[in-house]
């Protein structure tokens, strides 16, 4: 067995923390220790015949960086290993990952069943843009499995959900929805952004495809946009075929940033989970708070499912203040340490008003269906000292 083959076998048998640091890096003859950034748009071939063989797939190797790039490939191989998948395809953003999956797997006349509790822009893509191309979409309450079952028809091709949901941390039984999908030969696609493979691996629970916004916890420091689609070789080949033609490609530099982020993923996700649970417990006892949404709380309706399906509860929580939108805005505006931004998954704690930002393009009826009220605030808990986070939120509470 060659050294590279032996090393690959060792890594395939290794734990997640080790794979997140070392998987996918095939050293060049230069012998670099850190992964290199291949900032090249194209590649040079030995001959016209070799170029033709690369382009038609007869010869392995890089073709063009819209399609393949060695740095991006390291990230893809690492993500495939972490999610327990055959392969992965990187994209320019999380929404590009969702759109590329849909364009690769759906056609005119197909039907999609989607959870009503998903990221606002995901709803817009399904409801507005896919509909223009003849794809019908039905939205169902994420934890009502009878509605999932009844919504699936003969032309249903894909079921889509995120768990935990954004921003209310609703937990969907992945295995149960996968069984509903597979009974009709449909795919189940799971957005695993909130948990990452460090806390949840949907493919092991029956999902067919996992999508991520790498912009969030996979990066961990709010530096770059990116996404990734993870699944079987056949599915990834279809997605890659779309990306090769349409071009929503991840840049080599962004891929390198995400590679570096993955090295600390498990440590960070465990820390985010501890911080978020401590903050959720503290917020429950504060005056001015109407309700706290976090699956790590025993009072959460799907707490037992979350504990069984995940190895941690994640770093995002939501709360309702007593009052209206004005009260929520006063709470947010009174903070001084937290960052008022719609991003999440950062080492810096962020705070946002979903009804007017992340879910602002939804109609009032759509907001009502997915629980986005005017007094709702989302907090993505970072890694600052927890007492400093509490003190800053006390400023918000005083304003309410």
From TrEMBL:
Subunit structure of this chain's protein: Homotetramer.
Keyword terms, alphabetized: Amino-acid biosynthesis, Methionine biosynthesis, Pyridoxal phosphate, Transferase
GO CC terms, sorted: cytoplasm
Pfam families: Cys_Met_Meta_PP
MF-aspect GO terms: carbon-sulfur lyase activity; pyridoxal phosphate binding; transferase activity, transferring alkyl or aryl (other than methyl) groups
The keyword Disulfide bond appears for this protein: no
Organism (species): BD1-7 clade bacterium
Function comment: Catalyzes the formation of L-homocysteine from O-succinyl-L-homoserine (OSHS) and hydrogen sulfide.
Modification sites for N6-(pyridoxal phosphate)lysine: 216
Coiled-coil ranges per UniProt: none
Lineage, uppermost ranks: Bacteria, Pseudomonadati, Pseudomonadota, Gammaproteobacteria, Cellvibrionales
Protein's UniProt keywords contain Cell inner membrane: no
Enzyme Commission number(s): 2.5.1.-
GO terms under biological process: 'de novo' L-methionine biosynthetic process; homocysteine biosynthetic process; transsulfuration
InterPro entries: Cys/Met-Metab_PyrdxlP-dep_enz (IPR000277), Cys_met_metab_PP (IPR054542), O-succ-hSer_sulfhydrylase (IPR006234), PyrdxlP-dep_Trfase (IPR015424), PyrdxlP-dep_Trfase_major (IPR015421), PyrdxlP-dep_Trfase_small (IPR015422)
Cofactor dependence: pyridoxal 5'-phosphate
Top EC group: transferase
Name of this protein: O-succinylhomoserine sulfhydrylase
Superkingdom, natural source: Bacteria
Known pathway: Amino-acid biosynthesis; L-methionine biosynthesis via de novo pathway; L-homocysteine from O-succinyl-L-homoserine: step 1/1
Catalytic activity annotation: O-succinyl-L-homoserine + hydrogen sulfide = L-homocysteine + succinate
């Amino acid at each position: 067995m060659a050294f590279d083959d032996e090393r690959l076998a060792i890594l395939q048998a290794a734990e997640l923390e080790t794979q997140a640091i070392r998987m996918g890096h095939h050293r060049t003859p230069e012998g670099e220790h850190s992964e290199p950034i291949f900032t090249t748009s194209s590649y040079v071939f030995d001959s016209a015949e070799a170029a033709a063989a690369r382009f038609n797939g007869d010869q392995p190797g890089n073709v063009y960086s819209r399609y393949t790039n060695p740095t991006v490939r390291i990230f893809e191989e690492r993500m495939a290993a972490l999610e327990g998948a055959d392969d992965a395809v990187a994209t320019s953003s999380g929404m590009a990952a969702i759109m590329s999956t849909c364009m690769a797997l759906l056609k005119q006349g197909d039907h999609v069943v989607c959870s009503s509790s998903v990221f606002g822009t995901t709803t817009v893509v399904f409801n507005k843009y896919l509909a223009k191309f003849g794809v019908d979409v039905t939205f169902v309450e994420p934890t009502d499995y009878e509605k999932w079952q009844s919504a699936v028809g003969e032309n249903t091709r894909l079921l889509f959900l995120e768990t935990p949901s954004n921003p209310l941390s609703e937990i969907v039984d992945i295995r149960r929805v996968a069984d509903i999908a597979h009974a009709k030969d449909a795919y189940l696609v799971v957005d695993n952004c909130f948990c990452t493979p460090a806390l949840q691996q949907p493919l092991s629970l029956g999902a067919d495809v996992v999508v991520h916004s790498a912009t969030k916890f996979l990066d961990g420091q709010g530096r770059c946009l990116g996404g990734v689609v993870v699944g079987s070789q056949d599915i990834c080949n279809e997605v890659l075929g779309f990306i090769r033609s349409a071009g929503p490609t991840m840049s080599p530099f962004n891929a390198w940033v995400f590679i570096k982020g993955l090295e600390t993923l498990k440590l960070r996700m465990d820390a985010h989970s501890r911080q978020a649970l401590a903050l959720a417990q503290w917020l429950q006892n504060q005056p001015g708070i109407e309700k706290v949404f976090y699956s790590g709380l025993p009072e959460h309706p799907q707490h037992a499912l979350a504990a069984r399906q995940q190895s941690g509860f994640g770093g995002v929580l939501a709360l309702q203040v007593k009052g209206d939108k004005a009260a929520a805005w006063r709470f947010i505006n009174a903070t001084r340490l937290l960052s008022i931004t719609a991003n999440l998954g950062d080492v810096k704690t962020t705070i946002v008003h979903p009804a007017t930002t992340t879910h602002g393009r939804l109609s009032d009826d759509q907001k009502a269906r997915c629980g986005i009220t005017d007094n709702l605030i989302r907090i993505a808990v970072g890694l600052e000292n927890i007492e400093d986070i509490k003190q800053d939120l006390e400023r918000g509470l005083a304003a309410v």
